Amino acid sequence: MSQTSTVRRARKSPAERREEIAAAARDIALAEGLAAVTLRAVAAKVGVAPGLVAHHVEGMDALVADTFGRIVADELVVLLRLMHEQDAATARLGALIDAVLGDEPNDVTFVWVQGWALGARSEPLAERVRAEMDAWQAALAAEIARGHERGEFGDADADAIAWHLLAIFDGLGAHGLVRWRDDPSRADLTRRALAGLLGVPAHALRP
Questions:
Q1: Which of 182, 25, 37, 173 lies closest to 109 in space, CA to CA?
Q2: Please, where are the H alpha helices in 33-103?
Q3: Does the keyword DNA-binding apply (predicted)?
Q4: Domains along the chain with CATH numbers
């Protein structure tokens, strides 16, 4: 006579479940874009009912905003780490240009573009987009100010140049998604523009 036993599935804590939902939303956003982060899509990715996802998040607008923020903040951490492998400010900025404007568009660029578009109709997302843009601008300004202090750059408005560089990254990154005008390379165009703002030769802005 056989005997059956029932194995109960371990119930995850609310914190574990929220992290699982956040990870699923991130995977979806990177693979398909922010617009694909829906209640049903996240639930299917996690393998639970949509109602359970709804129970653990403040709302889909908040989840999309948090997903955007996590992705782009993580990217900035990685890029700053890459820059800090160099000592000279010119080399740091050169490494950043090459990483951001490589030959192929990256998934995070698409997340940024959708963040701007979807944020026009979602204040939680718009607020997070603004915060992450501020973080980028502050990081760029700090590197430019460091270069000035080291005597690598002349007198320069670090905040203003950082905004210029951020606008170039955003615009050319978006162009790269549809592979518009790849010759000369987007990285070289950026080097030339930034060199003019900093008063250095373009070839100096290389890692």
A1: 173
A2: 39-46, 50-56, 60-83, 89-100
A3: yes
A4: 12-57 (1.10.10), 62-200 (1.10.357.10)
